[in-house]
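thought: user wants a sequence for this fold. calling inverse folding tool.
action: design(structure=
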């Protein structure tokens, strides 16, 4: 377990899990939100975003957290482990709400500087519709991975704690 991607709905706890894994395994962590967004919530162009990931994925050890379906296949091809936080929608909505309150008018540690935490209607709807709109594509991509990847599909924070305690 040296090349790990963590995927799942916003609010599921991908970045939190990534930090815990990084500490436990002593593997560098890379947050896709930090690579994609620039100050003022300005997105980098897709080619720059892809090139940043190519550089990370060429290293021997890394943890990458985030979805970004446009580059998911390249991360799946490069990883040896996938951790998919497949939590219920209500839990993810609670997660983004809690995060919004915790980082009100501040920038999260896993986000680019100059991007204070926000929870607007469009993002709320994205989380609300994640299982309907994104889950089928994610499942299809995971099915194409083959048998050389270890895939953990976690349905609850309890399963995540068990993974951290028992497997790693």
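)
observation: tool returned 168 residues.
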């Amino acid at each position: 377990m040296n090349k790990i991607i963590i995927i799942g709905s916003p609010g599921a706890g991908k970045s939190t899990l990534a930090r815990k894994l990084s500490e436990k395994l002593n593997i560098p962590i890379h947050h896709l939100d930090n690579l994609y967004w620039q100050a003022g919530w300005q997105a980098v162009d897709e080619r720059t975003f892809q090139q940043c990931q190519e550089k990370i994925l060429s290293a021997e050890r890394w943890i990458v957290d985030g979805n970004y379906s446009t580059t998911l296949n390249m991360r799946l091809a490069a990883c040896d482990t996938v951790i998919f936080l497949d939590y219920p929608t209500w839990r993810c909505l609670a997660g983004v709400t809690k995060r919004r309150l915790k980082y009100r008018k501040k920038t999260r540690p896993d986000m680019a500087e100059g991007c204070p935490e926000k929870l607007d209607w469009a993002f709320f709807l994205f989380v609300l519709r994640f299982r309907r709109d994104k889950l089928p594509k994610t499942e299809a991509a995971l099915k194409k991975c083959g048998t050389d990847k270890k895939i953990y599909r976690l349905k609850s924070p309890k399963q995540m704690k068990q993974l951290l305690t028992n497997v790693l």
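thought: summarizing for user.
answer: Here is the designed sequence. The first strand starts at residue 3 and ends at 8.
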